[in-house]
Amino acid sequence: MRIAISAAGAGPDAPAEERFGRCAWFVIFDEHGNVQESIANTARSSAEGAGVKSTQLLLRNNIDVVLTGRVGPKAMHAMLNGGVVVYTGVAATVNETLEKYLNGQMKPLAVPNARQHAGDTRSERLAT
């Protein structure tokens, strides 16, 4: 099993990121909590479809579980169709988020918990 955590930086000590599609990095762990790699989220600067493109990136990297904060409808649909289980409720850092997950303190997400976005607009950046 491979677990991806949305992050503001590479590595387990980086701040965890609430935003799924616009996070800078995904830090990847195995089911035992061992760091495997950090993947730059090349979809984050997409004019539109960042969530779906981020999902495609994770599916290409055989991710089974995503730990994040907010997921929009299209990304959520793509992850569910791809067999990815999504958990919400990130902590301050990637390591702390992983610990929450491993201790059963994160909730699985079955429906989107963010509105659909249309690109990375100025008002959206100010709101997050």
TrEMBL record:
Domain Dinitrogenase iron-molybdenum cofactor biosynthesis: 16-102
Database matches in InterPro entries: Di-Nase_FeMo-co_biosynth, DiNase_FeMo-co_biosyn_sf, MTH1175_dom
Gene3D superfamilies hit by this protein: Dinitrogenase iron-molybdenum cofactor biosynthesis domain
Name by which UniProt lists this protein: Predicted Fe-Mo cluster-binding protein, NifX family
Species the sequence originates in: Desulfoscipio geothermicus DSM 3669
